[in-house]
Each structure stands twice: as structure tokens, then as C-alpha cells.
# Entry
Amino acid sequence: MGQDSSTAQEETIRETTAENTAGEPGKIATNEDPVAEESSDSENATWMQRIDTAFGKYVVDNAAAVIFYDFGTKDRFGVSIPFVVVWLFAGGVFLTLRMRFINLRAFRHAIDLIRGIYDTPDEPGEVTHFQALAAALSATVGLGNIAGVAIAIGTGGPGATVWIILVGILGMTAKFTECTLGQLYRVTDEDGHVLGGPMRYLRYGLKDIGLPGLGRVLAVVFAVLCIGASFGGGNSFQVGQSLEVIQDDIHILQDHPWIYGLIMAVAVGIVIIGGIKSIAAVAGKIVPIMCTAYVIAALYILALNATEVPAAISTIVSEAFSLKAGYGAFLGVLVIGIKRAVFSNEAGIGSAAIAHSAAKTDEPVSEGIVALLEPFIDTVMVCTITALVVVVTGVYAAPNMQDVIASDQGARLTLEAFVVGGHEWFRYVLFAAVVLFAYSTCISWSYYGERSWVQLFGVRTSIIYKLLFLTFTVLGSIVTRGNILAFSDLMILGMSFPNLLGVFLLSGVVKRQLDSYWKKYQNGEFPRMK
# Structure
């Protein structure tokens, strides 16, 4: 694993921009006049290519310069280490220590909570613990698990898996903290819908500790980034990656990809009109079924290749800490693993707090404890299983997959692993999983973005956001994967700056709430309903 491959993901932004300015990705200019060549390419470009070029040039490149700023680490260490990666990793470590490893000691209690053992019908909120968890999971269990893990292994090698798992474990505490805050500072809007999440606790939580000015600024920044993330990573990225998987088998989509985007937009639109109750009801059905089907298929492949599993695990662990290719390569694997893990489980991003704030409970800490299961299910379980399938089958190193890896087509790499390791018809299992995971992620992220939009512009403008969201659903089938992936990273990772800063400052509030709750729990003060 050389330095170039370890930094490939970090260079996606710059590569994308270079491709955009060339008119056709990968095309080598032969004209001696580059201006004339660029003009010619622009004239010959389709309307879809023009949209993609403008998107990459005016949105992706400028935002990347800010969010992925690396303080010159590439010159010093041989690999670019964006500050956002250090920020998220350090945040997970700090919160895990601050909350005294609540991610481990509350695990069993979290399972009891989602089983409804402590539920009472008259508690305030809109959805049950399980429905809130399903809605949040539907936003995280998706293309990040199928495509993101494969991208991480393809660009950084099998060792990236270890860092994905570690960040998943640390992310359990980050999810606990932000979702507890989401419950603490939630309100009900004029239509009777719960409004909660970072845009609430950043503004009013920081006001309570004497930082009202900072709270207002962070809340607005978060809301803007969340809206952008809902259009990108929570919508366009999902549509684009799922389209790539099924496109070869559905010929009409090869020439008319916008048809898929239009179908997805209609399907998403039907659900998001009903708000969180409708979203949670649909997510509560889709997520368990598709997670089960996907995991069973993956475990079947691992069973067929059982003799190769120990070697795969050994490769994953040894390459995670290997310095054979240099210190820069080691850091590159770590960075790629952290980025992909965060993109998958969204711990520290603050998005899940929006869904969990709607849960029915009068004990905010209990919902935070439910939320800590998300990174475990999403990252520690599903991502690890995907990684093992990709490594056991060896597709990440297959010569015919190198172009797929270079262009960040992670879902296609996982598809190849399912076919090689299992049966030809396994492709249809993955087709269904990819499409439904993409769909469930879109409907959940529409809620996140809509709640942020309402916080900024008022509940009466909600319909404007929903129409914009559906427009981006269609655009997801048009804008190329390079720009989609870059934009997704930018917006979703960018949300961590205002969110984690507020969470750090409010961690004392959460710690006091946790200590009080845990004492009651240990004393048996919470009545069991089942």
C-alpha cells in the first residue's frame, strides 16, 4: 500500500476539479491551445455535463479549501490530514472519557429501552424509542455501509477497517451526548411537531451557560450545513451511488439516468409529506428487513469462505498498524478509515439528534442511551461484515476493479464481492438493499434538513424546502459521483465543527443529567412496563 493510494480519497476534491475543467473526465487534451480546447469541450458538453461542471467548479472546490484545510500536513508527513478528521476523532475520545464509557456500561440498558420495557403511553413526543432509532438508522445504514467501506478498503487497504470499527465504538458516546442534548432542548412548533437537534441546543443550551452570541452563530452555521448535507450526502449521493449499481442491468437508465432520479423523487415525496411519523413508520419496516437480508447474504458469503476469514482478519489488523510503506501510509489509512466511519454513522455530526428529539420520553438521557446503539449496529456490525466480504473475496486487489476503485464506485466493488463470493443472483439482493437503503436515507435526511430549514425560515416555508430536496433527488442521477462524494463529505463533515464545539461546552450539562439518571436506574426507580 503506497502513499499515493493512501491519500487518494483526500485528493478526490482536487482530482474532481481537474476533471471538471477538462470537459470530459479522464480525457487527455491534445490541442496546443488549452483555452480553445476547453471552449470546444464546453460547446460539445451535454446539459448534464454542464450542470456537473458548474457544480464542481463553483461549489465543491471553494468549500473544500475551507473544510479540508490540513495545515500543511502533507508536506510534513507525506499525507494530508484534514483538521476535521482530527476534530472528530479527538471529540469521540474526549466524550467517551468524560461520560465514563457510557457506550459500554449502558449497552444492555439500551436494548431494554428499544424493546419498550420502560415505555409509558402518556410520555411527550411523536414516536417511540424504536421508531426514533429506526428513523435515525435509516439515515445512517445505507450507501456508507455498502459503498463507503469498499471505497475505504479500495483506496486505503484492508487496514482502514480497524479504524472504522474504533471510530464506531467512540462514536457511540458522541451519539449519546448529542441525542441527550436534543431531548433536553426540544420544543413543539405551532403545528404540534417536535423541533429539536443541534440548531436548538446550540442556541439555547449555550445561552444557558452564558454564551448566547456564540450559540446563535453556531446554530445558524449548523442549520445551513445540515440543509446542504441533506441535499448532498443524504440525498444526491444516495441516488447517484444506487443508480450506478443497477444501471448496467436496466438499459434505459444508461441513456436516461434522470428517469431513476424522477422515480426516487416521487417515492420520497409521497413519504416526506407526512413528517416524522410517516418517515418513522416507513423506516421501521424497511430498515429491519433490508438490514437482515443484507447481513444474512454477507454472512453466507463468509461461511462459504470460512477458511479465508482468519487470514482476512489478520490482514486487516496487520495493515492497520503497518509501517512497511512508511509513516505517511499509516496515517493515510487512519484518515481514510475515520472519514468513512464518520460518513457512515454520522457520530459527532449532530444529525441523529434531530430524529431522536421526537421520541416519546420524559427522560432525555434514556433517548441518548438508545441512540448509542446506532454506531454499533451501523459501523461495528454492518460495516465490519461488509469489509470482511470485500477482503475475503479479494476484489479490492483485483486488476479489473482498479478503475472502479479509482473512480470511487464503492457500491460496484461490493457488488463484485457479493457475486464472486456468493452466487450470481446475489446481485439482486444487493440491488434491493442499495435502492432501499438509499431510499430510506433520503426520507430521513429530508426530515433533518426540513427541521433545520424551519428553524431558519419558519414552519410555513417548509414546502419550499421539500420541493428543493426533491429537485436534488433528481439531480443525484445527473451530477457525477466524484462531485457528489466530494460535496457529501464537505457538508456532512462540516456539520461537526459547530456541533461538536457546542457539545464539548455542554458536556458538563449532559454529565450531570447522566449521573442523576444512572443513579435512579441502579436504584430501580424506573417502572418496568413489560
In short: The chain has one domain: 84-518. Confidence is low (pLDDT under 50) at residues 1-40. The radius of gyration is 22 Å.
